């Protein structure tokens, strides 16, 4: 690196070009700031390149393959249905490429400078950005750190060869004959279910007493039931201990309530969470920035760190590792830097699992609301009683709304069933606006649509359901 060179001036340095970083960069540019965004990998971060987008493409392909094989109930017969996995992967990659191109166009259109490389802080207002070709030094007024996260690696299951992280699983060249998934959270279940639909024999090892432990059991049990239909072996309260590799497979030793068991598969996929990218050569220690023992940067309601001109967003701060949370925080940070009064408010951040059936949740669950002292009104309406769901031949699941009984203001909502990932948005909007159950019930929903189920659930909570007998 060059010593003693002059610094280039920039208003805002953004470190990381994922859904948090690039959104922050664009918003800062819209507000009149000169912006440099730096990422050592492709634009779009994990979400676009190795997470949200490619995984949903594989999920979609698996869903369509499964539907083609099982259309007899509605009169569709297809013989010799097969998967050309090379074509599936090519299609997935084409989507990623288009999305990267879109982000690049947006950054250029907003006159944002980009640099592919790494960043190392020199002090609170200067940083070196570098790659193999160059290492310019920048002086910045403000900085937004958005370096994201990476899969947690277990000591007993180091990545490599037949031990996969989600990144390697998404890039497999062939459909594996068998797969052991360590971790039954949303990543493990999404990918495990996807490969099971493609024909892989899947085994899931989950340490809690249910898969998807972050959700109430009335939701996760529906997913567990469908895993069983796909012949997925699920072991709960299971702790993976060790493994033995051969040329063609891996045998995993695990315990269930102290009893030792073994399972063998072609590959092992480890999905036990993600670790924030705040270590390495970034140089946070030089800034005396407050960082937790878990590597999370401490921030205030404006995403401001303990170093006043530096902000942090996304997976490197507390809260769920969600792309849309990172994007939201990116906007708040950029607006705070520009002098606006924006602050973070997490009450209406949705969480979605693209399982089968899908799960969507926003706000408080019934259990959480009661724990916070609310007396609640609850409305629960099944997809099976909805005409559109029946015409889609997709009647599993329900919508559940939770409101404060005294004020009828909506506190939370959960959806398990078809299009839960889309239906949850209406509930999130209602929470954000402080809507009541009556507001939702009085909103005219088009017929026949799945969205009517949200209205029906509100009517049940109010005690006057139209399409169900009795209150529930």
TrEMBL record:
Its EC number is 1.8.1.4. InterPro entries: Class-I_Pyr_Nuc-Dis_Oxidored, FAD/NAD-bd_sf, FAD/NAD-binding_dom, FAD/NAD-linked_Rdtase_dimer_sf, Lipoamide_DH, Pyr_nuc-diS_OxRdtase, Pyr_nucl-diS_OxRdtase_dimer, Pyr_OxRdtase_I_AS. It is an enzyme of class 1 (oxidoreductase). Pfam families: Pyr_redox_2, Pyr_redox_dim. One of its GO terms (molecular function) is flavin adenine dinucleotide binding. It catalyses: N(6)-[(R)-dihydrolipoyl]-L-lysyl-[protein] + NAD(+) = N(6)-[(R)-lipoyl]-L-lysyl-[protein] + NADH + H(+). FAD binds at residues 56, 147-149, 315. Keywords: Disulfide bond, FAD, Flavoprotein, NAD, Nucleotide-binding, Oxidoreductase, Redox-active center. Residues 11-330 form the FAD/NAD(P)-binding domain. Residues 349-457 form the Pyridine nucleotide-disulphide oxidoreductase dimerisation domain. NAD(+) binds at residues 183-190, 206, 273. GO terms for biological process: 2-oxoglutarate metabolic process. Its cofactor is FAD. Transmembrane segments: none annotated. Disulfide bonds join 47-52. Binds 1 FAD per subunit. The active site is at residue 447. Belongs to the class-I pyridine nucleotide-disulfide oxidoreductase family. The active site is a redox-active disulfide bond. This is Dihydrolipoyl dehydrogenase. It comes from Paenibacillus contaminans. The gene is lpdA.
């Amino acid at each position: 690196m060059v010593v003693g060179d002059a610094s280039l001036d920039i208003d805002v340095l953004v470190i990381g070009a994922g859904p948090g970083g690039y959104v922050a960069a664009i918003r800062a540019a819209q507000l009149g700031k000169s912006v440099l965004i730096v990422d050592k990998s492709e634009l779009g971060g994990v979400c676009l390149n190795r997470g949200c987008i490619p995984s949903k493409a594989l999920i979609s392909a698996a869903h369509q393959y499964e539907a083609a094989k099982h259309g007899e109930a509605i009169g569709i017969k297809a013989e010799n249905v097969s998967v050309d996995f090379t074509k599936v992967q090519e299609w997935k990659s084409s989507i990623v490429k288009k999305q990267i191109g879109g982000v690049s166009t947006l950054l250029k259109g907003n006159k944002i400078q980009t640099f592919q490389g790494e960043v190392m802080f020199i002090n609170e207002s200067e940083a070196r950005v570098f790659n193999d070709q160059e290492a310019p030094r920048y002086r910045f007024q403000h900085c937004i750190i958005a370096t994201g996260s990476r899969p947690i690696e277990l000591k007993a299951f180091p990545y490599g060869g037949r031990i996969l992280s989600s990144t390697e699983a998404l890039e497999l060249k062939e459909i594996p004959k068998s797969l052991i998934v360590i971790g039954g959270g949303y990543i493990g279940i999404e990918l495990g279910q996807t490969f099971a639909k493609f024909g892989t024999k899947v085994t899931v090892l989950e340490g809690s007493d249910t898969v998807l432990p972050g959700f109430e059991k009335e939701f996760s049990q529906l997913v567990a039931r469908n895993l069983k239909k796909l012949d997925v072996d699920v072991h709960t309260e299971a702790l993976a201990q060790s493994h033995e590799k051969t040329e063609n497979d891996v045998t995993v030793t695990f315990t269930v309530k102290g009893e030792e068991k073994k399972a063998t598969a072609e590959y092992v996929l480890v999905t036990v969470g993600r670790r924030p990218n705040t270590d390495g050569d970034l140089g946070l220690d030089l800034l005396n920035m407050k960082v937790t023992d878990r590597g999370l940067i401490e921030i205030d309601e404006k995403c401001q760190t303990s170093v006043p001109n530096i902000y942090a967003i996304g997976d490197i701060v507390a809260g769920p590792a969600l792309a849309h949370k990172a994007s939201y925080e990116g906007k708040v940070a950029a607006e705070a830097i520009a002098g606006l009064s924006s602050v973070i408010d997490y009450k209406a951040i949705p969480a979605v699992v693209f399982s089968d059936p899908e799960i969507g949740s926003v706000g408080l669950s019934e259990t959480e609301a009661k724990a916070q002292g609310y007396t609640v009104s609850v409305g629960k309406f099944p997809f099976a009683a909805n005409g559109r769901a029946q015409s889609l031949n997709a009647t599993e699941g329900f919508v559940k709304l939770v409101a404060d009984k005294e004020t009828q203001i909506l506190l939370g909502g959960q959806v398990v069933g078809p299009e839960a990932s889309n239906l949850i948005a209406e509930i999130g909007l209602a929470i954000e606006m402080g809507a009541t159950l009556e507001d939702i019930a009085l909103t005219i929903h088009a017929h026949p649509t799945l969205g009517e189920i949200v209205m029906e659930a509100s009517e049940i909570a109010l005690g006057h359901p139209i399409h169900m007998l009795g209150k529930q």
